[in-house]
Amino acid sequence: MTNPVISAENLSLTFQTNDGPVHALKDVSLDIQKGDFVSFIGPSGCGKTTFLRVMADLEEPTGGTITVNGVSPHEARLTRAYGYVFQAAGLYPWRTIGGNIRLPLEIMGYSKADQAERVTRVLELVDLAGFEKKFPWQLSGGMQQRASIARALAFDAEILLMDEPFGALDEIVRDHLNEQLLALWDKTGKTIGFVTHSIPEAVYLSTKIVVMSPRPGRVTDVIESPLPRERPLDIRDTPEFLEVAHRVREGLRAGHGDDL
Amino acid sequence: MRNLLPVLTVLALILGIWWAAVGPMNMRAALDIAERGGAAVVPEGSVARREVSVWRLMAQNSDHVAAGYDLDRPRLPTPTQVGAELWKTTGAMVLRGRAFSKRSLINHGWITLQSTLWGFLLGTTLGILGAVAIVYSRVADMSLMPWAIISQTVPIVALAPMIIVLSNQLGIEGRGVPKAIISAYLCYFPVLVSMVKGLRSPTSSELDLLKTYNTGPVQSFFKLRLPASVPFLFTALKVGIAAALVGTIVGELPTGAISGLGARILIGDQFGTPLAIWSALFAAAILAGLLVTALDLIQRVTLKRMGFRA
Q1: Nearest residue, CB atoms, A77 vs list B214, B223, B230
Q2: Residue B255 confidence (pLDDT) above 80
């Protein structure tokens, strides 16, 4: 097998708070291969978002090692190795949708012609063609989140990190976006890290599901999905799907230990 | 214009109270003049009248109440008298082609406006630069901010003469520069405070986003902090321009000034011409209103163009 895109070994992160140390991550080890769609699932406080933020160099681990593309997350960030999608779309209100997607391109110094071409392309990719001149407030929440995904896709990062991007959206919109995200992943071949707390979402999307548990945040199970890459929405009613979902649920329950 | 009606209602109420107050305020003066003119007044003699309440004087001399509304040097002029005086010293002078004569409020208003705008420019520049320093430097945050707050506790009326004397001592001719400094002194503070708030308004995820792009500090400023602070800036500018005008007028008050609305107020006081005071006061208020309205329009156009939701 080739070198993993992201590789964590005994990764720990302890926040010092007024109430004493909080172990957000403890001895987390994980390899993510190129082209994987990896979901991180667990209850709040299990460190899944923290793990993603460590990959993105937005948090500093206090122990263990992690590499992204074979280098430290810091170096990876400096080479703009990943696109990050936040829980809130976080579009700048004074920029149009096109302007928001152009933001990373401007910062990274792409030529004007290249910027225009890329904006058109990614808008088509997320099904927002024709909305380039609109301002964020003129779009629905689901459309805003799609625009923020387009923003993360606009530049050539091989890795896409997504922190509960559809958490605030309703079920129907979420289903639709999940379907689109899979199509997008198939088309672009990116490696995706995806934080969620929805079991169906994790099972539907992922090639690999990382089940985490809180206090201290650690990995309790890593499930390689037996589902095929091609996944229509009704795959969620197949026995294979339900079996994986069951295993995720078991993992989540085991992680809780005596808490429940 | 849906707030026109409430504004006009309040205006009508103020004018009503003002009008009603003119009678009692001017009663004694009106009776003095009437008595000198040979009319019968109860009680006789202004000294004796001092012992009697205004209300009783009005009741006993109801014929003379109307005279209080038409005095040359009223203690409280009527709205129409002020309006007439304003017209006499502005519009009427324009019609006669003497808009910039020494008695014209347009001339004095123009002098005040110039200082105000210079002070406003200086004050906003200092305020914005100070805010940038405070947001980007912890040292500046800890050292500059307390002094900025302390600076506003010093009464400007006490400071203004000192600034004028000092700038005179430094060989600066005329009142223009010290007036602009005083005006800037009042104006920079609201701009500073608002801009600090505005530059710090981006959320942590908005900042994190730029970090994931490995954005440098200069680009972070121009692409995120500065545009995010624009709504805050305009609110500050509207407060700032009004403060700058007050600062200029205060700068025109110390003895020696002969031009500007502040000087008109002072001269009106010294020569006992209340109408001059009141018309200068209203000219200042109208000027402030125009300046704030102008900024408000610029704000609306700018924010709309920037895509902020109206």
Answers
A1: B214
A2: no
Whether residues B155 and B294 fall in one domain: yes
Closest-CA residue of B relative to A155 is B213
How many domains is chain B partitioned into structurally? 2
Q: How far apart are CA A172 and CA A193, in angstroms?
A: 22
Lowest model confidence (mean pLDDT) among A69-73, B32-36, B172-176: B172-176
CB contact under 8 A, B212 and A83: yes
Measure the CA–CA gap between A56 and B214, rounded to whole angstroms: 11
Which residues of chain B neighbour A82 with C-beta distances below 8 Å?
212
DSSP B102: T
Contact A110, A187 (CB under 8 A): no
pLDDT of residue B73: 84
- Reported ipTM: 0.85
How deeply is B32 buried, as exposed, middle or buried, from its count of CB atoms within 10 A (0-12, 13-18, 19+)? middle
Q: Quick one: B124 and B234 in the same domain?
A: yes
In a domain, residue B88? The reply is no
CB pair distance less than 8 Å for A86 and B307: no
Residue spans of chain A under pLDDT 70: 1-2, 256-260
Topology of domain A1-81+157-260, per CATH? Rossmann fold (3.40.50)
Is residue B41 assigned to a domain? yes
**A107 to B211: CB separation less than 8 angstroms, yes or no:** no
- Residue A83 burial (CB < 10 Å; 0-12/13-18/19+)? buried
In terms of domains, do B111 and B37 share one? no
Please give the full DSSP string across chain A, using - where no structure is assigned: -PPPSEEEEEEEEEEEETTEEEEEEEEEEEEE-TT-EEEEE-STTSSHHHHHHHHTTSS--SEEEEEETTB-HHHHHHTT-EEEE-SS----TTS-HHHHHHHHHHHTT--HHHHHHHHHHHHHHTT-TT-TTS-GGGS-HHHHHHHHHHHHHSS--SEEEEESTTTTS-HHHHHHHHHHHHHHHHHH--EEEEEES-HHHHHHH-SEEEEEETTTTEEEEEEE--S-S---GGGGGSHHHHHHHHHHHHHHHHHHGGG-
